[in-house]
Write a structure and sequence with these properties.
Radius of gyration: 21 Å
Number of helices: 9
Number of strands: 8
Number of domains: 2
Oligomer: single chain
Structural class: mainly alpha
Strand content: 5-15%
Bound molecules: zinc ion
Order of helices and strands: HHHEEEEEHHHHHEEEH
Distance between the termini: 27 Å
Strand order of the largest sheet: 1-8
Length: 219
């Protein structure tokens, strides 16, 4: 889509253009606390950035900006206990390649899973879905009960089934989430090309739009 948009816009606008490309699911997956779905969305935006940087090589007067409008979910790649037998550090694992591979084996987004399970899933349907689409994952009895009795994980984790599946994945991968909502975490901005320096340093989020205005008005 990015390649097609660049082709159409550059042909129709010899004096320049602005193209906005969004991988929206980074937000939706954050709300769902769905690390595997997030990973796929990050790969998608990574592909789009590569297309933009390719275009820039042929048109060096292009500024490429990669940014997020906010963070969602308070994701932390951290650690977890292997089981509840001991609190000692020898009973811990930290997120790494093995855990990323587990995420890579997941074949369904939490959003789709929640839709498939519906309002009142049976225990059998839930177990079958987890076994088929979340290979290697075990739904602990407390989490399983929450889904079957339609409870939410916490007062700030209100995406019922999705946030609970997120906790299942967190316990076995160490990818924990702090909320089902947005956070105030600063976001990284990456830029390349003319005007890139305007986006350096720690800035207020409203400065971002002012910088864009300045660049467009300067033309
Ligand atoms: Zn959002």
């Amino acid at each position: 889509m990015t390649a097609a948009a660049l082709k159409a816009l550059s042909q129709a606008n010899p004096n320049g253009f602005v193209l906005f490309v969004e991988s929206e699911n980074t937000d939706t997956a954050g709300h769902a606390n769905d690390a595997a779905s997030l990973m796929h969305s990050l790969w998608a935006i990574d592909d789009a950035v590569k297309v933009a940087l390719d275009y820039q090589r042929g048109s060096p007067d292009t500024l490429v900006i990669v940014a997020g409008d906010h963070e969602t979910g308070g994701l932390s790649a951290t650690y977890a206990q292997k089981d509840l037998s001991s609190m000692s550090s020898s009973n811990r694992f930290y997120t790494g390649d093995a855990q990323l591979r587990m995420l890579g084996g997941i074949t369904m987004s939490f959003k789709t899973a929640a839709g498939k399970l519906g309002k009142k899933p049976s225990g059998d349907a839930l177990d079958a879905l987890v076994a088929k689409h979340f290979p290697g994952f075990k739904l602990d009895p407390d989490l399983r009960e929450m889904i079957l009795t339609q409870k939410t994980l916490e007062r700030n984790h209100t995406y019922a089934v999705q946030n609970i599946l997120g906790r299942m994945v967190a316990r076995q991968t160490g990818f924990y989430w702090g909320t089902g909502g947005h956070t105030g975490e600063p976001v990284l901005v990456g830029t390349a090309g003319p005007g890139a320096d305007l986006f350096r340093g720690y800035q207020d989020n409203t400065d971002f739009g002012k910088n864009l205005h300045r660049l467009i008005e300067a033309r």
